[in-house]
Amino acid sequence: MKKLLIRNGRMIDPATQHDGVSDVLLEGSSIAAIGQNLAADDVEVFDASGMVVAPGFLDIHAHFREPGLEHAETIETGSRAAAAGGFSRVCCMPNTDPVNDSATVTGYILEQARRAAIVKVHPIGAITQGSAGEELAPLGTLREAGVVAISDDGRPVMNARVMRRAMELARSFGLTVVQHCEDLNLSAGGDMHEGIESVRRGLRGIPSCAEDVMVARDLLLTELTGARYHVAHLSTRNSAEMVAFAKARGLPVSCEVTPHHITFADEHSIPYDSNFKMKPPLRGAGDIDALIEAVANGTVDAIATDHAPHTGYQKMQEFERCPFGITGLETALAVALDRLVHSGRISLMRLVELFTTGPARVFGLDCGRLAVGGAADVTIFDPDLDWTYDVNQSMSKSRNSPFHNRRFRGGPVATIVDGVVVWKQ
Amino acid sequence: MPAGLLGIEDLSREEIEAILTRAKDFQPEQRHTFKKMDTLKGKMVVLLFFEASTRTRTSFEIAAKRLGADSVSITAAGSSISKGESLVDTLNTLAAMRPNAIVMRHASSGAPHFLARHLDIPIINAGDGAHEHPTQALLDARTILDRKETLEGLRVAIIGDIDHSRVARSNIHLLSRFGVDIVLCGPPPLAPPELAKIAPGVTIEYDMRKAIRDADVIMMLRVQLERQHETNFPRAEYFSFYGLELNHLELAKPEVFVMHPGPINRGREISSEVADSQRSMILNQVENGVAVRMAVLERILSA
Fold first, then answer.
1. Is the Cβ–Cβ distance between B289 and B56 less than 8 Å?
2. Hey, which CATH number is domain B8-132+286-301, 3.40.50.10470, 3.40.50.720, 3.40.50.1370, 3.40.50.2000?
3. Tell me: the pLDDT tens digits for A311-329?
4. What is the model's pTM?
5. Which residue from A188, A196, A320 is facing B108, i.e. has the nearest CB?
């Protein structure tokens, strides 16, 4: 059996709160041993001196565009971008073409992942048929087919009654309900955050309350139904405070933030540059402070990328016509280190938690820790690596990143999935 | 990046003054004959209008011709844009023919700014969505300065659909550079409070009579139904609250005058009595359009 010894790294494992220099021995697809000065015969050695050795990172919010939108990304290219970002596992949103609202599509995604992906891929199923917000998708069948959560991401469930029924069923099937919170009547036609910048640029705005109104509604429905409820890409101060309030009341609620929402405010975006156009939009500077505070105080459970590839020709249009979304898998760790750790707001332990046990808990996945006998999924990163992101070297099929040419301190070094180094810096 | 003219917000007070001063030389009353000049002889200007326009396109065309430039006018309806060509491809195609400048109007805010980042040709913004219409603000300032010594200290009321108006935004930036007291007025959904923060010296007033009080200039704006995706106000009562009538003028300074970028909608935002009165400068504005656009074209093309 193939053996890999990761030597001399600073092992950080939030599951056990372990933070110290340790060797990790991988044998086949499992972790064989963890300890000081491990030795083995016939072993390949990875010298991790000066680096952090962490459980394989999990991104619970990405778009791999397959089936149907392979011009922008495929499960293969998306998985390569994930590996290059230090992720060993990714959950894919169902807004493909067709939408993942059936066991057939779920099966197709899992089969493509087995065939072509270099990291582990979990499909997320749709809440409603075609994500049209009307008829519920066959949630139990989707669960059996292998979806790990349900969401109509990008097309929020506007009908409160439909949402209630979905949550009731999701609870009985043990599925987390993930909502892209946006009241479509309030956001209609908007292209960026509503504020001074949208008014200055003559663009229609998406007000913060478009998100807040739906978060508030859904938290009340969570109380009513008892379902596990997760706010995707939370972007506003009010929503962060409401989630904290709901958690304090003991509701089964969680939320994620994206790297870009804790980095750029609306006023930092280059005017009419579609690499700064996504949903939710880049909010105000006060929202950034609130999100970082929510990460620091434990309200936020996970950092998720919302990796949303679009081809160059889709993004090279009038700003109002460009689709929403940016790529993010390859820059997530570096951005998080920069904004959260190097700025002194959180510890490395908390950072690793936000990429591992945090998101794993959200969907109830059995992953995200380093344990003897457990899966040999490992992320190795250097918190001080000096590097510059060049989007033209991206593993993704698409190039829509606002982080192009950004110099970072800290980044991924190697990604190991089932004992195999699938990417190395 | 070649210097075009994308917006007033990018211009300094000195640059604005230079254009306004030069425009004076081109005004009809300064020149008794419209002899064609040869300042821009051999230069090619492409006028690319993705949105309907009468005043702006015609006056750019006349301005170019008077300066001796050749101009080609393209409208969306008769071009490959209507065959589904993307904006970038259209512009690349035109750029390959090496015009010296492209004058462009587009329904999307920022469309000329986006293109300016990708093309090596000066772009003159003839109106982008709800964002800017720089030559309109310049000709409005020229029109005011034909009657006032200076812009400094004037009180200008801008009334109507401010939120969807590129004319309003360009005027706000221009007038603000010169210390004008700017009062914006319209129904709240069309005059969001953030507008007061895009430049110094701007206030918002929802009562039209208060907005007009002591004004030196009243600028009326059309309600841009084509840019509104839902009902932002009860249309039936619009004129009662935001329509300009003769009796309003008594609230303003005695020598107040009324401007409107056109096209006007009689009885919707302005009464016929006001539009046709001695107080109306609407046709003077149109006249100044040519002079100001000559100054802009000369500045950009003879550089």
1. yes
2. 3.40.50.1370
3. 998 989 999 999 999 999 9
4. 0.95
5. A320
